[in-house]
């Protein structure tokens, strides 16, 4: 029995599958009394952790709140998740909260998510929630081309303030970088730079939907590796074996190499700090690379960084590989009892 599973990994664009277009209204009685943001720029991803303390200043309970993403970042959003952190009366264990895509007719330019509380937030009470967001392709190589020995500089554009449909009483943002080498950054007082961190705030009484462009130009030599497409073939054998074959197109989306490439310098000094040397995979039996034709067995990671250098396109270095695994059917197949075949 053989069947194919074909999927496309989006390297750009906002992933809208699985989210229904509901409609909500902004509840004016909700207030962000305290917001602490951590913007992690230490890798190719932009990871933002928002710790929000919400107060219900109204006269009736509310079951959910709205989390907004500014228009400039919405197309880069890859993941969003929320966790509860207890309330004013006690600190409970963290619990995941339901997150659903929604819309607000009065603010069609923004992207909204409805986060549902575990319990009704009663009038006069507060709740603490952690909202995690991850953005892809939100750091731009700047300059776009570099020589083999130059460090990779990137430009991040975000918002100094917490973008929210509610008033924010107090907020602070900490930007974490991969190194202390910073070319420039937006200075909106109070702001403090220390080593590889930039702290914005605290800011008081921020109005809803406030935006102030934040730009950070810094060194980031993390490998910018992207899977542009993935085709998976799964073969289930009646003889107790499952074979999985994945055809992967991988592309380096960082700064493009300027000038000639020296393999001698690359092997001797490991020049090219932002180059990709390996990627992780589980229980691999063998691999095939169209650009290098390498086969390995029982390896946990595949070292192919130098082979990415063999193929060049206007978008950067790329490679196509065939990754194959094998496992026993007892690990993945179960019998469906009391169900018609």
| Poorly predicted ranges | 1-20, 283-287, 291-315
Ends apart, CA distance between termini: 15 Å
Strand percentage lies at: over 45%
Shape: flat
SSE succession: EEEEEHEEEEEEEEEEEEEEEHEEHEE
DSSP summary: helix tally: 3
Q: Please give the number of β-strands.
A: 24
Would you tell me the structural class of the helices and strands?
Answer: mainly beta
Mean pLDDT, as a whole number? 80
Largest sheet: 11 strands, mixed
Residues in helices, as a percent range? under 10%
* Rg over CA atoms: 24 Å
Task: Describe the overall structure.
The longest helix has 7 residues. The chain is flat and about 65 Å long. The protein has 341 residues and is mainly beta. Strands 2, 3, 4, 5, 6, 7, 8, 9, 13, 15 and 16 form an 11-stranded mixed β-sheet that branches. Strands 1, 18, 19, 21, 22, 23 and 24 form a 7-stranded antiparallel β-sheet that branches.
Summarize the structure.
Helices cover 4% and strands 54% of the residues. The chain is mainly beta. Strands 2, 3, 4, 5, 6, 7, 8, 9, 13, 15 and 16 form an 11-stranded mixed sheet that branches.
Properties at a glance:
mainly beta, seven-stranded antiparallel beta sheet, disordered N terminus
Helix-strand blueprint:
Layout: E1 2-7, E2 22-23, E3 30-40, E4 46-56, E5 62-69, H1 71-74, E6 77-87, E7 95-103, E8 111-121, E9 126-135, E10 139-141, E11 145-146, E12 153-159, E13 167-176, E14 182-185, E15 191-194, E16 197-206, E17 213-219, E18 225-236, E19 241-252, E20 256-257, H2 263-269, E21 278-289, E22 299-303, H3 305-308, E23 312-313, E24 316-328
Parallel strand pairs: 2-7, 3-13, 11-20
Antiparallel strand pairs: 1-18, 3-4, 4-9, 5-8, 6-7, 6-9, 7-8, 10-12, 12-17, 13-16, 14-17, 15-16, 18-19, 19-24, 21-22, 21-24, 23-24
């Amino acid at each position: 029995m053989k069947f194919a599973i074909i999927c496309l990994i989006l390297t750009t664009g906002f992933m809208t599958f699985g989210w229904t277009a509901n409609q909500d209204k902004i509840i004016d009685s909700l207030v962000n009394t305290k917001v602490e943001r951590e913007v992690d720029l230490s890798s190719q991803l932009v990871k933002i952790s928002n710790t929000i303390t919400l107060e219900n200043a109204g006269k009736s309970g509310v079951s959910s709140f709205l989390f907004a993403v500014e228009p400039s970042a919405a197309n880069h959003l890859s993941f969003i998740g929320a966790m509860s952190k207890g309330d004013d009366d006690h600190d409970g264990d963290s619990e995941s909260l339901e997150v659903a895509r929604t819309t607000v007719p009065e603010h069609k330019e923004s992207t909204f998510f409805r986060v549902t509380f575990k319990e009704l937030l009663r009038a006069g009470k507060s709740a603490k929630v952690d909202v995690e967001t991850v953005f892809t392709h939100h750091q731009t190589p700047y300059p776009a081309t570099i020589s083999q020995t130059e460090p990779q500089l990137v430009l991040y554009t975000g918002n100094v303030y917490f973008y929210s449909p509610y008033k924010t009483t107090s907020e602070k943002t900490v930007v974490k970088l991969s190194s202390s080498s910073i070319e420039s950054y937006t200075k909106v007082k109070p702001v403090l730079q220390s080593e590889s961190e930039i702290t914005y705030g605290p800011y008081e009484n921020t109005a809803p939907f406030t935006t102030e462009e934040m730009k950070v130009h810094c060194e980031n030599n993390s490998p910018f590796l992207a899977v542009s497409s993935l085709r998976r073939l799964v073969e289930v054998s009646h003889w107790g074996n499952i074979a999985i074959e994945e055809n992967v197109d991988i592309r380096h989306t960082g700064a493009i190499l300027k000038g000639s490439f020296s393999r001698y310098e690359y092997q001797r000094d490991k020049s090219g700090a932002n180059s990709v040397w390996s990627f992780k995979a589980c229980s691999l039996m063998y691999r095939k690379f169209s650009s290098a034709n390498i086969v390995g067995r029982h390896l946990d990671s595949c070292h192919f960084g130098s082979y990415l250098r063999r193929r060049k396109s206007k978008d950067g270095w790329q490679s196509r590989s065939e990754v194959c695994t094998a496992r026993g059917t007892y690990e993945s197949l179960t019998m469906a009892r009391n169900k018609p075949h």
